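sry for the spam today, last one i promise. struct tokens for design, 212 residues
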């Protein structure tokens, strides 16, 4: 295991990802476990590390809006509006997944959760790693999320190849998760962004474009 600071070693970290390795990095919320989301073996590794159930999907962070089409080809009007309004930001949006995504990501749901982080350093790291990384929280199932690099070490030790030590988490709350795979947004988990703010934003937009 190597512990380093970003972005000085980003090229080396990108090499770990391309070889199917696992990294831990600070997202715009807590620390997450990052692998290439299109590498089924790598995604399987993080599920094993966490002791995560096979029916639990794995969320993905992207570096830029343009990366979204790799995961969701036809986002719903609600998805488009909330992404335009709250991205970059701590809002994970769930939409209908592209068919070529590994089943380890979607866990049989045919959907995928995607976020564009509100942190320049995080987006730069993800960009150098191919534009997208998994970002499931860097903790065993049922354990508290890791808020710093030492917590990741305590949880996983040498089981992962690289920890990007980028300081303390910038929040004590996770991202808000909203399912927008259908016509109406549905709250899955309230976090940094209040559900009331999201709901009001969508209702105003829905009325203006007459979506029923």
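last one done:
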């Amino acid at each position: 295991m190597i512990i380093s600071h970003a972005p000085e070693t980003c090229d080396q970290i990108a090499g770990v990802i391309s070889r199917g390795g696992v990294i831990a990095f600070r997202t715009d919320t807590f620390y997450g476990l990052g692998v290439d989301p299109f590498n089924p073996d790598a995604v399987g590794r993080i599920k094993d590390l966490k002791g995560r159930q096979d029916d639990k999907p794995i969320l993905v962070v992207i570096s830029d809006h343009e990366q979204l089409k790799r995961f969701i080809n036809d986002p719903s009007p609600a998805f488009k509006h909330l992404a335009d309004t709250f991205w970059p930001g701590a809002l994970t949006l769930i939409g209908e997944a592209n068919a070529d995504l590994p089943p380890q990501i979607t866990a049989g749901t045919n959907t995928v959760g995607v976020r564009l982080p509100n942190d320049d350093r995080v987006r730069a790291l993800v960009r150098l790693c191919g534009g997208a990384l998994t970002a499931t929280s860097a903790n065993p199932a049922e354990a508290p999320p890791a808020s710093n690099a030492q917590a990741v070490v305590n949880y996983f030790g040498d089981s992962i190849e690289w920890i990007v030590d980028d300081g303390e988490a910038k929040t004590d709350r996770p991202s808000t998760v909203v399912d927008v795979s259908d016509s109406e947004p549905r709250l899955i988990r309230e976090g940094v962004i209040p559900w009331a703010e999201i709901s009001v934003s969508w209702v105003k937009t829905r009325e203006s474009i007459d979506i029923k």
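The domain at 2-209 is CATH 3.90.870.10 (DHBP synthase). ok im logging off now
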